[in-house]
Amino acid sequence: MTNHETTHEAAATEGQETTNQTFPFTAIVDQEEMKRALVLNAINPDIGGVLIRGERGTAKSTAVRALADVLPDHEVVSDCPYGCPPDDYERMCSECRERVDTGEELPTRTQPMRVVDLPLNASEDRVVGSIDLERAVQEGERQFEPGILAESNRNILYVDEVNLLDDHIVDVLLDAAAMGENIVEREGVSFRHPAEFILVGTMNPEEGDLRPQLLDRFGLVVDVAGVNEVDDRVEISQRRAAFDADPDEFRAEYAGAQRELRADIVTAEERLPDVTLDDAIARLIAGMNIELDVDGHRGDITLRRAARTLAAFEGDSEVSARTVRRVARMSLEHRLQRLPFEEEEQDVMSVFHEVRRELGLED
Amino acid sequence: MDVSYPFTAVVDQAAMMRALLVNAINPDVSGVLIRGERGTGKSTAVRALTEVLPEQAVVSDCPYGCPPDDYERMCSECRERVDAGEKLPTGTQRIRVVDLPLNASGDRVVGSIDLQTAVREGRPRFEPGILAEANRNILYVDEVNLLDDHIVDVLLDAAAMGENIVEREGVSVRHPAEFVLVGTMNPEEGGLRPQLLDRFDVVVDVTASDDIDERVEIAARRERFDADPEAFRADYREEQRALADRLRAARDRLGDVQIDEELLRDASYEALRQRAHGMRADIAVERVARSIAALEGASEATSAHVKEAQYFVFPHRVEGVAEMSFGEGVLSTGGDEEPEAGEEDDESDTEGDESLDTEAGGIPIAEGEDSYTIDRTAIDPTKDRTMRDALARRTPSRVDVRSGRYVRSRLQEDVDDVAIDATVRAAAPHQHRRTEGRRGGLVIEPRDLRQKIRERTARALVVFVVDASGSVMSGRQMMETKRGLLSLVEDAYRARDRVAVVVFRGEDAFTLVEPTRNHRMARDAVSKLTVGGNTPLAHGLVEAYRLVQRERRRDQDLYPLVVLLSDGQTNVEYREDGDAKEDAFRAAALFDEDDIPSVFVDTGYELDTTPDQIWTDRKAERMKRKRFERNLTFAETMGADYLPLVELPRDATLPTEVEEEEGQFA
């Protein structure tokens, strides 16, 4: 049981420690789609996370861990285990609300968003939280001990090899992701707290696929392949070698680029609410979803969000067809229904152009 | 969280909204199940309902929110208070949507001993659980098809009696638990137990809109809501208030709504005609029709109201339509016709061995003629079940393990995985005595210890070994094989098993689908499968055997199941200079030796009509008998269950006799 506490503490400090030794995000060669998908999520958590599929050695995990370095800062209630936002009453946990209600001034601090790991061997009680054993035995009091979902509130929840995650953990994740809240009704504890996290997963498709329900929860999905350009390959190994030889110096080299990207993300975040999406583009997006026979409406909503976020990132005030094109595949491809006995597979890009032409839009 | 999307801002989905409102105003309607693909606003709508629900009078200090003026529906404590002449304090409270999360454990659902009181005061006191909270409210289960079986049992128990009876950990309590059950589910993730399905008076299926304007509107509203929830909600405040008023009025009016006996008679007749199960349908139609009338502001239910009610009540109760989804099984066992005894015949078994060598590359089969929209009504449910049960038995869906999900606890000797909560609860009532009044620390004795019972879905791998040689082209053999295969793949998905498909044809066998949980991929591959060439049965078996061995090396706990779909014929030897038949038997024996569970589905049992076409009746009969015997021996060699695949009637409509299905899940 002491084990529990140490892992808990380790996880809490991990965010700070590891970022110092991670490979800089801006030093990752190529893999533009993957980087774009990650950055878009950093700007706009509403996009709903990203799943990165690819073979081993395609810098999937490196990229996710590197992302932590360029994530924007946010304000948190400093002594709240859920890192509640001090100025958004609706998104606070019940305890913070009570404190606000009693007129207490909440202590705040600024901290960067973190990447919280969900290891494959995590037990359900560690994920959702459980009863605080010591208190239970000592005082006969039931105190909730927050788990990984609590930690991941307002942060990135990262699952490596997400396709190998146990089913019951997947169910719990889906529940929390759907509601933005973790409801615990087990082992004598009845508790709920906000759990709004950006779900990021990586997986190697050779190891098996993901449950459709979970797949659908990811806002974006990108497939990464190995780099085929000789020059790029050389560049990759050189950078890796340089990093391994002297991480600090290597990171110093990229410090400027890192700062810049981080600033861009912050600017985009601020600009996002003002990006407009006109009716023609809205019809383009809806038309594509109908044409592709996407399940439900999540495809429409995600594609709109992703397009607006990309526009914000690139400094545009309006979403253009071109912006839509560049996020269409990652937003929709995983939502296509693959019906049996259907020979041809629908292609997102060709449908995009088809609908775009029908609506008379420029690319 | 607290800021929910306004109910009145939900676009389209009229049926779903209507069904929810019907339940909101009439607590006698037992619940609604919303089925639909992902992202169709199912959960959004249910959560949105909270805000427009009417208020009701409650005993303000009662944990079960008893009705102050209905003695019969009160909890025992409230009754006692009334009996003692006490005036109960009352208040009003909005009907609530109480969540039952998938991770809920039994003690929290039914309630259990209050730890604090037990430890501090040494007396057992009942602490109410979710069922208590749900009394006179709405109990909502998202992904209700994924709910643990033992929680489902508890729910069904309480629902059937309108009461929650608790006998555990030194507490013995019963309290009213009358709730409206609302469930949402995605049928792709598996079906619902029939008993639970039957609990829902109303079932609606939702799909996404395919109207471009509507879709634009849906996405735009969602975006506006996300950008500024407060402003968005302000836009709908009036509508929300109007709806809330309407619901309150409807609820008040409900008791006075009349329904013509003639209409009810017609409705019952319709229920009979459509073979809706049991009496529940009739009762539900009456309740729902009256609610609809009340919602409409009518004082009497019309035939239009009854029609609408039937639309909600019948779908899941009508034989053949129940649980209808694509790909449902078509595989069936015959078994009732024994081949007629014929005289011994030493004619060698050659007819199938003659290769129908068609051009390499194979021929796509069964296209055009049949679109594979599988009609569930064509299935004999009893026979179908035998087949599936046989497979299900071979793959335990749950196993006891240390790493699984903690589902409940029990008392046992040698506890090595302590269920802390249960242990503490067990120790709690004795604290007063054990500590003799001293404070500080809990005294736990060995007899308090409870073991955690964990479950984990077994890592099962179902390997299908499929004959795709030219010889199976006769009759409908390959088509039925494929259909059966597809339905089994579907079952495997429901059970979360991994599947692999091994195909043999021509001179060799290959793995068409590597072990995967991506059942869509497996279905795709199977439906595109082409046939042609010789019949290398031994190769197929060896390939499957290797696959299982490989997977077992990777996962010690793997539970494999090999399903061979073949007519038992073979004409390619595995060993150089070997004998085709002997090699096949040798390959089969491998599975028996290694205790690899297997099933042999004989696709030639009735479907292969070649003998009938080539020989005279008597000789054809003899051939069939010989084959049947050979296949039985083959299954025995393999250590496999033998199951013959039988052709199903193609033009079947609704079964003429309604099968009694009682007891199947009891």
Quick structural gist:
The complex is a heterodimer of chains A (about 375) and B (about 675). Chain A is of the alpha/beta class and about 375 residues long.
Strand arrangement across the biggest beta sheet of chain A: 4-7-10-1-11
Count of spatially separate domains of chain B: 4
> Whole-number average pLDDT of chain A?
84
Q: Portion of residues in helices of chain A?
A: 40-55%
CATH fold description of the largest domain in chain B? Rossmann fold
End-to-end Cα distance of chain B, whole Å, is: 39 Å
Per CATH, the class of the largest domain in chain A reads Alpha Beta
The secondary-structure element order of chain A is: HHEHEHEEHEHEHEHEEEHEHHHHHH
Spatial order of strands in the largest sheet of chain B = 19-18-17-21-22-23
Radius of gyration of chain A: 22 Å
Helix proportion of residues of chain B, in percent? 25-40%
Form type of chain B: globular
Largest sheet of chain B: 6 strands, mixed
Poorly predicted sequence stretches spanning 5 or more consecutive residues of chain A: 1-19, 339-343
Structural class of chain A: alpha/beta
Task: Indicate the mean pLDDT of chain B.
Answer: 75
Provide structural commentary.
Chain A is an alpha/beta fold. Chain A has helices at residues 2-19, 32-43, 60-70, 94-101, 124-128, 133-139, 148-151, 167-179, 212-217, 230-245, 247-271, 279-291, 298-313, 321-332, 348-358, and strands at 50-54, 73-77, 108-112, 115-117, 130-131, 144-145, 156-160, 181-186, 189-194, 198-203, 220-224. Chain A starts with a helix and ends in a 5-residue tail after the last helix. With 666 residues, chain B is α/β, with parallel strands linked by helices. Chain B has 23 helices and 23 strands. The longest helix of chain B is centred in the C-terminal third of the chain and has 22 residues, at 617-638. Chain B is globular, with a radius of gyration of 30 Å. Residues 320-400 and 648-666 of chain B have low confidence and may be disordered. The chains are: A alpha/beta (363), B alpha/beta (666).
